[in-house]
């Protein structure tokens, strides 16, 4: 069943300062979604949070993927910006997408998120 995943920066801090940061995150998203058998249908990286629409093929796969991405990305971000400590506001949030109508609304929401935020 598809899931909507949201991971927010701690205290609304910037998690992606530019294209290089986003590309690093997306590389790990690609790597770990394949490793844990997760279909990624839609995604958006905002400056201070992430939205993903994914369908896991195995139980527990989303948690393993998000933990792996988080571990790699926080290490990268802290090293790059000479900082330490947490980047994310705790564990990611997720909810099941149980209806086709909600699925279509969610696709639209994810696609238009940067437009509404005047990022594009």
What is the makeup of the main sheet? 4 strands, antiparallel
Number of strands: 4
Query: Gyration radius, to the nearest Å?
Result: 14 Å
Mean pLDDT: 94
Tally the helices: 3
Assign the structural class, choosing from mainly alpha, mainly beta, alpha/beta, alpha+beta, or little secondary structure. alpha+beta
Going across the major beta sheet, what is the strand order? 2-3-1-4
Helicity, in percent? Answer: 40-55%
Q: How would you describe the shape? A: globular
SSE sequence, one letter per element: EHEEHEH
User: Distance N terminus to C terminus?
Assistant: 31 Å
Structure overview:
With 120 residues, the chain is of the alpha+beta class. The protein is built from three helices and four strands. Strands 2-3-1-4 form a four-stranded antiparallel beta sheet, sandwiched between helices.
What's a concise summary of this model?
With 120 residues, the protein is of the alpha+beta class. It has helices at residues 19-35, 61-80, 100-116, and strands at 3-8, 38-45, 49-56, 93-96.
Features of the shown structure:
45% helix; 4-stranded antiparallel β-sheet; alpha+beta; 120 residues
